[in-house]
Amino acid sequence: MIDYTKTLKRGGNVTHYRDTYACIHLDYLKDNVETLYQKVRKPLMAIIKANAYGHGYQEVANMLKDNPHISMFGVATLKEAIDLRNIGIEQDILVLGGIPIEDLDLVIRYDITLSLFSREYMEEIIKLYHHDRPVKVHIKIDTGMNRIGLKSKEEFEDILQACKSSIFQVDGVFTHFATADDENQKDAYEKQINMFYEIIGDHTFKYIHCQNSAAMMYHHDTRSNLARIGIAMYGVDPAGEECDALKQAMSLYTRVVMIKKVKKGERIGYGLTYTALEDEYIATLPIGYADGIIRANQGRKVYIQGKYYPIVGRVCMDQMMVKVDEDVHLHDLVEIFGEHISLAQMAKELSTIPYEIVCLVSERVERIYVK
């Protein structure tokens, strides 16, 4: 493991004050974008919601803004869109979900594109509109997720006709797949994509997009002219499998801050849920569930000095304990996930998905960016 903190100085303009940090390889992101572009050969929308899936939206957006393959950015909230404008992002930005209608003025001021997903939502926008510029929208079609979106061709045609004679500028149309990452549910994917194009019919748009990371990697679509890259851009397979084609951009590290020897029969942590089976060495690490390492990690392993060691006792808010041996020393670097423990592996062990793990890495975990 490379200790990237060795290149940093404490104090001054550098705010590295913890032994717990995430390392983000920006070059890996760039390589993943190129890999995905070569698969689909069409413009890409970079999805950087949720602080770029925990990777840091400013650094990721700045790295992508001059990339020739990135035509748009996608976010979940209006604040995320405005934050991108405030750091100089000039490409179109689509808010994939709904926004508070009373913030429509900000949408116009910052030139943000909205998702138009229901007749009621459209009418609320019309009531508040008082500008001389149109509201840019992408129409969202619900082909089976049953989250937001229009559910029939009749609804779509109704909205499209209403938009032609109103305040809206329809730049795109899109849907989202529920099972594109599941090879056992290919029929559900086929049903959704067929429904999408049946609803669109012969209409043309600047952007037609339905390919998410999973659809890009596991399926083929020639009609859409824009693809949305989310988790795959960050180097993680959408199905949560190991993937040599992508490079995992984030690794999470901490350090050993204390080692003590406990006697056989002594117990560890809140609830005293672990009992030493013999005289053991216990290392304390300055990382816990307030950093995103949830209590379910108890019993999993971390990587220290070429070996894997189990987490014992309940994970605390700021600390956790690991059973080690004499090969582990004070201040040793500890990998929570990274080169030796992939996000795919960690997700399987936690019965979750890699998305959740990276999004849970909290803001107090410092990010170190590497090129």
Structure, explained:
α10 crosses α11 (354-360). The strands form 3 sheets. This protein has a 9-stranded mixed sheet with strand order 11-14-17-16-15-18-10-1-19. An 8-stranded parallel sheet has the order 8-7-6-5-4-3-2-9. It has a two-stranded antiparallel ribbon with strand order 12-13. 27% of the residues lie in helices and 24% in strands. It is an alpha/beta fold and 371 residues long. It folds into 2 domains: 26-234, TIM Barrel, CATH 3.20.20; 250-370, Lyase, Ornithine Decarboxylase, Chain A, domain 1, CATH 2.40.37.10. It is elongated and about 80 Å long. The chain is built from 11 helices and 19 strands. It has helices at residues 26-40, 49-53, 57-64, 78-86, 104-109, 119-128, 153-164, 186-200, 213-218, 343-350, 354-360; strands at 21-25, 44-47, 70-75, 92-95, 113-116, 135-140, 168-174, 207-209, 227-229, 250-255, 258-262, 267-268, 274-275, 280-285, 301-304, 307-312, 320-324, 333-337, 366-370. A hairpin with a 7-residue loop joins β16 and β17 (320-324).
